[in-house]
Write a structure and sequence with these properties.
Structural class: mainly alpha
Oligomer: single chain
Number of strands: 0
Strand content: under 5%
Largest sheet: none
Order of helices and strands: HHHHHHHHHHH
Helix content: 55-70%
Length: 285
């Protein structure tokens, strides 16, 4: 109509699920929508809700689910760095449930051999965040898949538990991968499987480890603008965390029931299978 004002078409924002990947579309915010509400379509919100439930389940029942959530949220948000920061508060919340429920089973002493090497990995990962490289996640996927194959071979041959060099390598890779992409789940799962821990000790030790690591990542992410990088935490991401937090609690409750019902052999198998799927997804993320 002549003389009618035409609203500008919004550019493609990072707060969407790429249509070329999974068909989620950017949904323009209505005028009545609060200005801080994240620009997610209803389908993307549904996917985020599932991701939040899986985040809780990963900490209390099925550890291998965690990496799948990392990939899902990265696709929805669009910016890998901001997706890592958006997921971090949800991970911390889920870790608290894992620490509380399995507090009597934690083998925290096993983590001391990893601690210095994890710090090395954290420092390298923090520096790498400034590079905006695209080859890191496929590389991590290849490494984790190779480690899964090695773990299966060792279990088949009945090899003894690995020694200090294995722990050093796993610690450094865990610190690095959790900093650059929240992708340390498969690495840590393989370390705990190699120690042949019962599922309660597995979940408890992993929860303690990731709670400390995730809390340590908060200042690393917050300091990125000071170090010359782009901001990682955003007001939209933090508001999305607040909205999704109840679903993390639901997932944690479901996960505990799953862990109680799952036999040890099935638990170990699910960890390997889900870790392999998650590592493979890193190849094309």
């Amino acid at each position: 109509m002549a003389g009618a004002a035409v609203s500008p078409v919004p550019a493609k924002l990072p707060w969407m699920f790429g249509s070329a990947t999974a068909g989620f579309r950017y949904a323009r915010r209505s005028q009545n929508c609060p200005p801080m509400l994240p620009d997610f379509s209803p389908a993307a919100w549904a996917a985020l809700t599932v991701g939040a439930v899986f985040t809780g389940m990963a900490k209390t029942g099925l550890p291998g689910l965690g990496i799948l959530v990392v990939v899902l949220i990265a696709h929805i948000v669009g910016d890998v760095r901001q997706s890592a920061a958006m997921q971090l508060p949800l991970l911390c919340l889920a870790d608290l449930f894992g620490v509380w429920w399995f507090r009597r089973h934690a083998q925290v002493g096993r983590l001391w051999e990893l601690a210095p090497w994890v710090l090395v990995g954290l420092v390298i990962g923090a520096a790498t965040l400034l590079l905006h490289t695209t080859w890191l996640k496929p590389m991590l996927g290849v490494i984790v898949l190779a480690m899964i194959a090695l773990t299966m071979l060792r279990r088949w041959r009945g090899d003894p538990q690995p020694g200090p060099r294995w722990s050093a390598g796993m610690g450094a890779l865990t610190g690095f991968s959790t900093t650059v992409a929240n992708a340390a789940g498969p690495v840590m799962n393989l370390y705990l499987l190699a120690r042949r821990l019962p599922k309660s000790e597995f979940l408890a030790t992993g929860a303690w480890f990731f709670l400390v690591i995730n809390l340590a990542k908060i200042p690393v992410y917050a300091a990125q603008p000071v170090l010359g990088g782009d901001p990682m935490f955003t007001s939209q991401g933090l508001l999305a965390d607040l909205i999704l937090a109840p679903m993390v609690v639901v997932g944690a409750l479901i996960g505990r029931q799953v862990s109680n019902a799952l036999p040890q052999a099935w638990f170990d198998g699910s960890v390997l299978a889900l870790s392999a799927i998650g590592a493979a997804s890193l190849l094309w993320w």
